[in-house]
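Long-time lurker. I teach an intro course on protein structure, and each term I like to show students one example going from raw sequence to a predicted 3D structure in token notation. This year I'd like something fresh instead of my usual example. Would anyone be willing to generate the tokens for the chain below so I can use it in lecture? Attribution to the forum is fine with me.
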Amino acid sequence: QLSRNLQASLVVVNPEQAEPTLGFVVAGEPEYCTVLTTRAAIAQGEAVNLVFHQTPSQMVDRVQSLPNSDLVILQRLHNRADCPHPPLPLGNPDRLQVTDRVYLQTATAEILGANQTAPLAAVSLTDIETSSLPGVFQLGYQPPTTPLAGSAVVNRRGRLLALHMGVGAESDTAWAMPISLYREHLAVLGDLRGKSLLDRANQLFELQQHEAALVAYDEAIAQQSERPEPWYGRGSTLYALERYEEAIAAYEQALAIRRDNTLTWYSKGNALFKLQRYEEAIVAYERAIDTRSDYFPAINNLGLAQKALGQTAAASVTFERVISLRPNYHLAHNNLGTTRQKAGDYQGAIAAYEQAIHIRPNYAAAWYNKASAHARRNETTLALQALNRAIALRVSLAESARENPDFASLGGNSEFQELVKRGK
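-- Reply from a regular --
Happy to contribute to a lecture. Here you go:
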């Protein structure tokens, strides 16, 4: 009976591939068949096809990756309230203990290709080891097994506990992802039901579930296209997904409804900046500042755009304006320093970096930039002291220093060579 229940909920993802991935129908949103699987299912970056129990292949309508996890949700729209395929009930992986008896699917690609089935095998847990990766643990099995990506770990009651991450040689251990994160996702969906579409979209955005948020914003726009808020939310979601051209189009829709929105002009400027369209970004930042003259984030980013265009004098004035509004804004002091350094004013740059460090003593970028300015002035001891502090705060800066021409004067220095080795 356990095997039959599992088989009814089994889904084969991309069956045409040499190594297909497994998934399972689970409880989810109304009108969708929701399949829980692993990132291996979308690794090829192509269209994703599903084969439900005793049905032909169907294309996925929505794909969503759970934050901080390799768990992936695939959804197929159905014109009925409930999915016609039975959901596999969810267990509690937090209760797993060594010596527990669990059931694993032992399907191979050949077996799946022949009859779309995944036999079960009973095994004993010999070890449960938490990984340094969030939402992952390593399970020890006896006898050894070779699980396919997405294959299930279920308890004696047939409840889903975890999904395996990938294919490997036969082993007595396997990396698996407990379904706890999906249980949390379902709890969030429960909280979202009854909220307005816009509130639902905003909450999904805050949870960094950007693909789901984008769908929700589109649904909100379909209902309230005359309001700027869902258009702005759509733009911010597209920005988070690094789809900057589309983000700009969404911001422009919001601005067509309300022209005096400071945050929308600022956000449009940020998307233009990401595309290195600096002149247009400057226009957008200036429009944001026109609507609110003390909005220092827009003033700061205006300075960054001016600096990117080589307008160092104007950028310096802009950063000084930010500092007059927010004297303790460490980023502005650092930006003023890099602008002065670009103009060849190394002493003025060092003064700005020191002010940033005074405000934020562990600000690695300011220590690094201070070191580069000292190196430009051939102040070897001061440069090495600042660089040592920067690398201690952020070891990746060692590689940056190794490749930065600002540190050319230190190239033959043995202490410098030891410092930059830390990044290897």
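Some talking points for your students: Residues 129 and 155 are 18 Å apart (CA to CA). The two ends are 55 Å apart (CA to CA).
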